[in-house]
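Table 4 source record.
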Amino acid sequence: MESTVILRSHTRNRLDLSSRGKPRGGFTLIELLVVIAIIGILSAVVLASLNTARTKGSDVGVKGNLHTVITQAGLFSANNNNLYGSFDNGSGGVATCPTSGTAGTSVFHDSTIENAIAAALLDSAGGITKCFANDTAYAVAVSRPDTTNSTYWCADSSGVSCGINSLIIGAACGSCASTQ
């Protein structure tokens, strides 16, 4: 009889029975820590993917806004005797693009073009913009948020829209590094 009591006592401790004879539910600390670690790893992977998608979306936004510049510049030229007007740094070189509401007569002072360049600058996460125009040609470059393929997106009056690695030096994009 004594051996039965010892067996029951051993079984009771091993199963961790409550006072009513039912097993207690719940998870061990190790199980909870493993689940938390797995959730942490999964959330890190998802956040990395979202950040990549956000950067690519911003890059597409810059390129799309430069296409707006090309389209609007064509309309500007058609309405102004096929001229783009003059915009430079005062010494005949490339200048920072004007901000919205800046007075002037060049293609870069058209409100739609100013807004498109401002939106491209916003998409580039605070990058830089450079513009140049003479009466017959223009070029604009905006830094890219994703510099994997090139450093800047460029658009010019010949209809070129591509990625370049060095800033424009005149009224053309120059050598394209990427078109994507």
